[in-house]
Amino acid sequence: MKTMKSLLLAILTVVVFTTMSCSEDDNNNNNNNAAANLLAEELRNTAASGTWRVALYEDDGQNETSDYNGYAFTFAADGMLTATNGTNTVTGTWSVSVDSSSSDSSDDDGSDDSDDVDFNIFFASPPDFEELSDDWDIVSRTDTRIELIDISGGDGSIDYLTFVKN
After folding, report:
1. What is the pLDDT of residues 67-107, one digit of tens each?
2. C-alpha pair distances (Å), 117 with each of 9, 64, 97, 107, 113
3. Alpha carbons within 13 A on the beta-carbon side of 56
4. How many whole angstroms separate alpha carbon 136 and alpha carbon 118?
5. Beta bridge partners of 162
6. What's the maximum distance between 2 C-alpha atoms anywhere in the chain?
7. What are the backbone angles phi and psi of residue 38, rounded to the nearest 5°?
8. What is the distance, to the nearest Å, from the Cα of residue 69 to the centroid of all Cα atoms in its chain?
9. Cα–Cα–Cα angle for 68, 58, 141, nearest 5°?
């Protein structure tokens, strides 16, 4: 009988500790996911308010900002992206997404957060605008500035893209 009680106590102890550790992990994941979702929502609202210009576009160490001189970028709430310079209009799409499928803490942006917030841009043409098509990681965001980075999975090269509000 004493062995049975000891066995029951041991099983109960394992169940309690397992439940407690799972609950703590789940709470951390929920908190990280909530923070990432909040950041994503704030970024969507910021981008969709007003027009923006490219203050910096650096591709593999080459400053190509001048390719976008004079263009005003509008990030519409419906996901449409328009760049116009008064003569030419280029259309594409944009979104902000949260990828929480990664089980490790080493995201492609080098952050410690297990959730990855991406600023997605897609242009089908022309070639200068196709270069902006990517799932950019957020470096920083204010109401007037959005700084993005992309680290290539192929060769490790780094691209920078910064939008400043007009």
Report:
1. 999 999 999 999 999 999 999 999 999 999 998 654 443 34
2. 45, 25, 6, 10, 10
3. 13
4. 5
5. 56, 147
6. 89
7. -65, -45
8. 25
9. 85
Residue for token pair 């290539």: 152
The span from the CA of 147 to the CA of 135, in Å, is 13
Q: Which tokens in the block code for residue 164?
A: 């400043």
Q: pTM to 2 decimals?
A: 0.74
Place of tokens 């007009």: 166
For residues 148 and 99, what is the distance between their CA atoms, to the nearest angstrom? 16
b/e per residue 148-160 (b: at least 16 CB within 10 A): bbbeeeeeeeebb
Within the chain, residue ranges assigned H as helices are: 2-47, 127-130
> Cα Rg for the chain, rounded, in angstroms?
22
The residues near 128 (Cβ < 8 Å, ≥ 6 apart) are: 64, 67, 68
